[in-house]
Backbone:
């Protein structure tokens, strides 16, 4: 494709030569002739002067007059990163890792209903009463339990597990090793110090357009539903406990743990290794920075939090700055205390 064709397709504006032939997308620091790259983060602007790319996708705020690279052409687009992803999809088609059709080693219960174009890979199991919507792909070694309902155009990667009764909407992606609908962690203490298991009788419901990473666990509700609302994206190695509700288009990074019956709002951003206590509520558009520990509800929407227990990130940053200097501060305080003691002894003589 020529740069002119790419710009027309993206709705962008070319600055420089528009007849350049674009062969491949590439990182800005690794690009060569015939490559197109992007600049979304200003901290990488230093690479513009020495990149080997033929063209760069940039935002409208970039001052092109400051770029000393006369051979470089630009395509101005509203969001360079999103535009680059569209180019990736077009110029580098994703390989299809799945078996197509129903494999001879797959076990499909007679009462299961598979929609048109459903694929089920080797050694997968689809139990009684399951319904699978049109165009859904089930990989190898996947276990789909009794009475599960899976929507259309979903993708379940190899060795994913969906326990009995759970519900997946349309276009849901579940990656390898993830377990949807395992028992919630419910145990009642007995007088002798042992524990009695509390029956976990609810389900998990994952709404449309969600993506769940690898090796996550989403526990079924004790009673009712654990809910992942539409458009939510969950990274690898995330634990979602029983009766949790995750709001629409919330994103959660790896190694986060969410305790039982907590409710997270819509459009939240939760970074890695965040811990959320049980029975708390988190307002819409909240940002939790990495390793934040949430011990009480966050009721004001749109704020950013950090630390354990959570504090607004500006205040938390100030506290962290002081903590880094505590050893020196202690030395200064001890020195001032000694000087004050000397002064007091002089005065009392």
Residues:
């Amino acid at each position: 494709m020529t740069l002119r064709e790419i710009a027309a397709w993206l709705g962008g504006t070319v600055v420089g030569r528009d007849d350049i032939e674009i062969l491949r997308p590439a990182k800005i620091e690794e690009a060569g002739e015939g490559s197109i790259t992007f600049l979304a983060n200003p901290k990488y602007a230093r690479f513009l002067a020495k990149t080997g790319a033929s063209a760069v996708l940039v935002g409208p705020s970039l001052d092109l007059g400051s770029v000393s690279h006369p051979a470089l052409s630009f395509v101005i687009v509203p969001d360079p990163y999103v535009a680059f992803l569209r180019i990736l999809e077009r110029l580098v088609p994703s390989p299809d890792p799945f078996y197509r059709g129903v494999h001879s080693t797959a076990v499909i219960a007679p009462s299961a209903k598979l929609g048109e174009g459903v694929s089920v890979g080797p050694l997968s199991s689809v139990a009684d009463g399951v319904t699978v919507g049109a165009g859904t792909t089930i990989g190898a070694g996947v276990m789909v339990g009794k009475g599960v309902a899976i929507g259309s155009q979903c993708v379940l990667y190899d060795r994913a597990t969906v326990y009995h009764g759970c519900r997946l909407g349309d276009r849901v992606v579940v990656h390898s090793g993830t377990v949807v609908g395992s028992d919630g962690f419910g145990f009642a203490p007995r007088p002798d110090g042992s524990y009695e298991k509390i029956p976990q009788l609810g389900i998990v419901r994952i709404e449309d357009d969600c993506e769940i990473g690898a090796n996550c666990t989403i526990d079924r509700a004790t009673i009712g539903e654990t809910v992942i609302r539409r458009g939510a994206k969950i990274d690898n190695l995330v634990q979602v406990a029983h009766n949790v509700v995750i709001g629409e288009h919330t994103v959660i990074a790896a190694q986060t743990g969410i305790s039982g019956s907590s409710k997270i709002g819509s459009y939240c951003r939760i970074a890695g290794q965040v811990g959320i206590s049980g029975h708390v509520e988190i307002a819409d558009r909240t940002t939790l920075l990495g390793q934040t520990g949430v011990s009480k509800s966050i009721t004001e929407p749109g704020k950013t939090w950090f630390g354990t227990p959570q504090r607004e990130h500006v205040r938390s940053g100030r506290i962290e700055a002081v903590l880094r200097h505590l050893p020196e501060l202690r030395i200064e305080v001890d020195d001032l205390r000694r000087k004050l003691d000397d002064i007091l002894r002089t005065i009392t003589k």
About this structure: Helices lie at 3-10, 80-91, 313-324, 326-348. The radius of gyration is 27 Å. The chain has a mean pLDDT of 93. The CA atoms of residues 183 and 286 lie 28 Å apart.
